[in-house]
Design a protein that fits this description.
Length: 409
């Protein structure tokens, strides 16, 4: 997701600037050797959660979104890139893509499904929050072939939830999750650790509850404290509890990992667990050759080696659609070096670096720049080497963010 910057009135007409290139990309027939992904971003939330850097617009601004996005899909859905081959993976992310009411969701999804054909085993996910889980929305999502929900639960603890700005009772949470299950969706639960005032026992207990609910995947997110979030401001003023030290946060991560394993869930990347170790395909695409078309406002994607972002400013997004332009805000060719860096950052999250697949894709010397870091991390026991490949150790998990930073600089 692209940060929303105040750009004033001096902004060039990006949609017109990139019109030729986006047309060229969308008018080519689809590549045969790449996974096909559609990503639709909805930049609205009912209210702001105290920790969240992804928040953009309140519900009030969302009135025309479903309608306008359906129009945009009708405008571009007949292009060869969209119409000439089915999609493997569809992800509606946010913000909260379930924010429109059931009728508007149905309208948007009808337009989407009319043009975006899907493979039989297509993974079709919607991110959602418990607040938006209603029988009406679930009915629409089911009828429109969505087969997986990714629910930002974060914690079952009622007090921690108040601090996060997502108050709910345990009974209500369990009731909503039961509704999702009874409606026949597979579902992921996002759980957070490292929250001020949280204990390793509380986190492990939450993970146990999540597995008892029948989650088919659990994502464990370490709290990142971003500037300009209400949580950071409150902590600065001494509200709530103090932040936890690094060691306590790491112990919490280990408690989550052990709890999942004790229940028979298998880890398939550094923060994800599922009953059979089956990965979420959308997350897995980061490691693969893929073409991902961004839709909605503030969505990011990539076709061949062109990265594409759609307008994060909602007014600009609507304006481009009105003119019949693809709402592109940024489109640029990524260098080979950039592609390697991007892929390596993604692959680091998987916990394993398969050197051969890099060399097959980018040539034998492609990782030369990173070799000295791999050597150092091996000496520090952050990584172990097996043949040509590397694997992050438990000690390495503690330093994961540092490793990621090194690759990104
Ligand atoms: C892009 S958000 C969208 C989820 C959805 N809107 C919801 O709130 O349920 C996906 C996930 O990112 C994680 N996340 C958001 N802010 C975070 C932060 N500051 N630190 C760590 N994880 C965060 C949360 O677990 C969240 O569920
Ligand atoms: S966590 Fe989800 S609902 Fe909360 S502000 Fe972020 S995107 Fe919106």
């Amino acid at each position: 997701m692209l940060p929303l910057k105040k750009t004033g009135n001096q902004m060039p007409d990006f949609a017109a600037l990139y019109a030729g290139k986006i047309k060229e990309l969308l008018h080519k027939p689809p590549r045969k050797n790449a996974e096909r992904v559609a990503y639709l971003h909805t930049p609205f939330c009912r209210s702001r959660c105290s920790y969240c850097p992804f928040y953009r617009y309140t519900e009030k601004k969302s009135t025309n979104f479903a309608q306008q996005t359906a129009t945009m899909i009708e405008q571009w859905g007949t292009s060869p890139f969209v119409s000439q081959a089915p999609f493997d993976i569809v992800f509606f992310g946010g913000g909260t893509p379930t924010l429109p009411n059931a009728q508007d969701l149905n309208h948007l999804l009808t337009a989407f499904n009319k043009h975006f054909k899907k493979n039989d085993n297509c993974e079709f996910t919607f991110e959602t929050t418990l607040t938006h889980i209603t029988p009406e929305r679930l009915e629409v999502l089911k009828r429109q072939e969505v087969n997986r929900l990714s629910i930002g639960l974060q914690t079952f603890d009622e007090n921690l939830r108040k601090m996060l700005g997502r108050p709910s009772t345990l009974d209500n949470m369990l009731r909503k999750i039961r509704m999702v299950k009874e409606a026949g969706f597979r579902f992921n639960l996002d759980m957070m650790y490292g929250l001020p005032g949280q204990t390793a026992e509380e986190f492990a207990d939450g993970i146990r509850k999540a597995m008892d609910c029948g989650a088919d995947n659990i994502s464990q997110y370490q709290l990142q404290l971003f500037d300009d979030t209400p949580l950071k401001q409150s902590l600065k003023k001494g509200k709530f509890f103090a932040l936890l030290d690094e060691e306590s946060v790491f112990q919490m991560q280990l408690a989550g990992l052990e709890t999942c394993k004790a229940y028979g869930y298998k880890q398939w990347n550094l923060k994800n667990f599922s009953p059979g170790g089956e990965p979420c395909r959308y997350t897995q695409t980061v490691y693969k050759e893929r073409d991902m078309l961004p839709l909605g406002s503030g969505g990011g994607g990539m076709i061949e080696d062109y990265s594409i972002f759609t307008f994060p400013q909602i007014e600009k997004y609507y304006e481009a659609i009105k003119k019949g332009c693809y709402p592109v805000f940024q489109l640029k060719k990524t260098s080979n070096e950039g592609l390697i860096q991007k892929k390596l950052t993604g692959i680091l999250e998987s916990g394993k670096i398969d050197v051969k697949s890099f060399e097959d894709a980018f040539g034998t010397n492609c990782l030369k720049k990173y070799r000295k870091h791999f050597r150092l991390w091996k000496q520090q026991n952050w990584m172990r080497q097996e043949g040509k490949n590397f694997e992050i150790t438990i000690e390495g998990m503690r330093h994961f963010m540092k490793m990621k930073k090194v690759i990104l600089t």
